[in-house]
Design brief:
about 150 residues, alpha+beta, Thiol Ester Dehydrase, Chain A, six-stranded mixed beta sheet, 2 helices
Length: about 150
């Protein structure tokens, strides 16, 4: 696997997940379907949350409210990719992430950013992050997971 290097713009917790492009993540042209990246970053984000102690019951209360994606290169079935997700900024109730998807040669295939908000459960509106989650998000830690085997 490529060496882990610090990412520009990441000020808090981050994760690197190595995985393979699955058959159902490709389109008729044989490369990654544009929607696959949304699943990849969500998978990485959830692993990052688990690593900082966020309970699974909180996941429905942290929706994505904005996302930007740029596509630079194609990814193909069974290709090993590196998905990096990192905290760029933590607000009172929001969290801004940056992400990259890279090929094994280090080439950037997909990149972008997104924002989540800590919602107040079933009521409308946002709610400040619990302090222990804020501490986990802002800690300069990096987790790695290899799902490519």
């Amino acid at each position: 696997m490529p060496a882990v290097t610090p990412r520009a713009g990441v000020s808090g917790a981050s994760i690197i997940v190595w995985r393979r492009v699955a058959w159902n993540e490709t389109d008729a042209a044989g490369h990654n379907h544009f929607t696959a990246v949304f699943r990849w970053i969500e998978e990485a984000e959830h692993a990052l949350f688990r690593s900082i102690g966020v309970e699974a019951t909180m996941i429905p209360r942290i929706p994505r409210v904005h996302i930007e994606v740029d596509y630079f290169d194609r990814l193909y079935f069974d290709e090993v990719i590196e998905v990096r997700v990192g905290v760029a900024k933590v607000g009172t109730s929001s969290c801004h992430f940056g992400f990259d998807v890279r090929k094994t040669d280090g080439g950037r295939a997909i990149g972008g950013s997104y924002v989540i908000v800590h919602a107040s459960g079933t009521a409308s509106g946002a709610k400040p992050w619990p302090e222990r989650i804020r501490e986990g998000l802002t800690a300069r830690t990096e987790v790695t997971t290899d799902l490519s085997s």
